[in-house]
Amino acid sequence: MPLAAFPASLPAHAAADTDISVLPRIFEDDCNIAILQRHLPADIALSTQAQCQTQRPWQYSWLGSPDEAFMADLRRQLPAPDAAGPLLDDMVTIAEAIAFLFDTETVGVRLRLLNTAMCPRFHCDNLPVRMVTTYHGPGSEWLPEHAVNRAGLG
C-alpha cells in the first residue's frame, strides 16, 4: 500500500510509522492498530507477481516455527518456486518479527491468492492480534472503531 494512502493524522488508537519499532505499540491499552508503512521492494514485488500469474487458485497455511522447514514447505507449495526467493525471505522476516514480538516459537501463516474479499463482512476475531500484509493488489481496509456498526454481527 502506498504510504500516501494513510492520512496525515491518525486517531489516538492507531499508530503508524515507517520503522518496524511501531509494531510493539499494539501492546498499548489505547492502541488497536499498529501500521508499519513500507514500500514493497521491486524484487519482492516481482517475486509476488510471478506467484500470481497462474490459472489455478492456491492457498497456503503453516502453523509452526518460521524456520527452514517453513521456507522449504512454502517453496514446494508456491506456483512459481524458482521465482519465490525474495517473497519467501520477506515472509520469514515478518514471521520471525511476530514470533519475537510475542515471545513465541509458533506462528500461524496464511497466504492466499484472492480475487474476491477474504472477509466480505465484518467479523470478530478469536485472536488477540492479527498481522496482515498485502503483497499484490489494493490491500486491506481497516475501519476505526467509531465507524463500525456491529449490530449485524450476531
Summarize the structure.
By secondary structure, the protein is an alpha+beta fold.
Structure description:
It is a single chain. With 154 residues, the protein is α+β, with helices and mostly antiparallel strands. The protein is 25% helix and 13% strand. The longest helix has 17 residues, at 85-101. The protein is globular and about 45 Å long. The mean pLDDT is 84.
Shape, principal axes of CA atoms: globular
Record the strand order, biggest sheet.
1-2
**Residue share in β-strands:** 5-15%
- The arrangement of helices and strands along the chain is EEHEHHE
User: Quick one: how many beta strands?
Assistant: 4
Mean pLDDT, rounded to whole units?
Answer: 84
Largest sheet properties = 2 strands, parallel
Distance between the termini: 32 Å
Nearest-angstrom radius of gyration? 16 Å
Low-confidence parts, pLDDT < 50 over ≥5 residues? none
Structural class: alpha+beta
Number of helices: 3
> Percent range for helical residues?
10-25%
Structure characteristics:
154 residues, two-stranded parallel sheet, alpha+beta, two-stranded antiparallel sheet
